[in-house]
């Protein structure tokens, strides 16, 4: 019988953390060996059996957690958002430095673990070069601490990269006066709008327009269980992928 992969969950008492613990508990090839709260030191895992740590904490502490977990020799899967190019670069450099000594540590950071959301981002990136206009609307519950969401930020950056590769210029927008924030945030030239509404979980609409036509790509997560297949896939894959991997799409066969 194949031995189980030992998993620790950091942020285990939060909404997502509890769901991850239940998912790991229910997976026959995984074993939940530690549940850490926000007040627990992640360095304590160095003396335990954990091989992979899953971080679902908050943006203010997640980068420090990742560095500490890498130093303990654990592979890390991160679902906490709020990452920037600078913070990703610091983690990338740290992992490369550790792995230069032959450690083989993997870190997988994903803006979204829902398969529908990953596919929506992929489809939007592929479609973006064919449309004159594109905007992103993300909708979440009002307890979410960051806006726009990491998923929306990544979607906008992917759209912008595809447009730049296709040689497209700025999108048309004749707005001259506006109430502050009415046109949302601008991420690499793409407008992103954040909705916070009780009753929502996690939703995103990507609107792409041409004269006379519109393409809408929408993903809806109605329950946190929608993220669990992606989290479990990431846990299984990260041990085989030394270095930093950003995005669940990198471990899916999307051509």
Quick summary:
The chain is 31% helix and 25% strand. It has 255 residues and is α/β, with parallel strands linked by helices.
Question: What does this 3D model show about the protein?
Answer:
The protein is of the alpha/beta class and 255 residues long. It folds into two domains: 5-109 and 225-251, NAD(P)-binding Rossmann-like Domain (Rossmann fold, 3-Layer(aba) Sandwich), CATH 3.40.50; 115-222, 2-Layer Sandwich (Dihydrodipicolinate Reductase, domain 2), CATH 3.30.360.10. It contains six helices and eleven strands. The protein has helices at residues 15-25, 59-71, 85-99, 115-127, 150-165, 228-238; strands spanning 5-10, 30-36, 52-55, 75-78, 106-109, 133-140, 185-187, 190-196, 202-210, 213-221, 243-246. Strands 2-1-3-4-5-11 form a six-stranded parallel beta sheet, sandwiched between helices. A five-stranded mixed beta sheet has the order 7-8-6-9-10. Helix 1 (15-25) crosses helix 6, helix 2 runs parallel beside helix 3 (85-99) and helix 4 runs parallel beside helix 5. The longest helix has 16 residues, at 150-165. The model has no long low-confidence stretch (mean pLDDT 94).
């Amino acid at each position: 019988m194949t031995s189980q992969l030992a998993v620790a969950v950091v942020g285990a008492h939060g909404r997502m953390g509890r769901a991850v613990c239940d998912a790991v508990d229910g997976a026959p090839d995984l074993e939940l060996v530690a549940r850490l709260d926000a007040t627990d030191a992640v360095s304590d895992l160095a003396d335990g059996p954990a091989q992979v740590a899953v971080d679902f904490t908050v943006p203010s502490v997640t980068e420090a957690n990742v560095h500490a977990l890498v130093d303990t020799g654990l592979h890390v899967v991160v679902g906490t958002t709020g990452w920037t190019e600078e913070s990703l670069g610091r983690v990338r450099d740290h992992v490369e430095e550790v792995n230069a000594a032959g450690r083989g540590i993997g870190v997988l950071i994903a803006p979204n673990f829902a398969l529908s959301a990953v596919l929506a981002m992929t489809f939007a990136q592929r479609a973006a070069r064919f449309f004159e206009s594109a905007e992103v609307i993300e909708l979440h519950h009002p307890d979410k601490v960051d806006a726009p969401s990491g998923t929306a930020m990544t979607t906008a950056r992917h759209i912008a990269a595809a447009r730049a590769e296709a040689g497209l210029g700025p999108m048309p927008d004749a707005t001259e006066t506006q109430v502050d924030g009415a046109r949302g945030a601008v991420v690499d030239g793409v407008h992103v709008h954040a909705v916070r509404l009780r009753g929502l979980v996690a939703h995103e609409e990507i609107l792409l327009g041409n004269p006379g036509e519109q393409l809408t790509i929408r993903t809806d997560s109605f329950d946190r269980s929608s993220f669990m297949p992606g989290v479990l896939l990431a846990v299984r894959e990260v041990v085989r992928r030394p270095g930093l991997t950003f995005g669940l799409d990198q471990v899916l066969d999307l051509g």
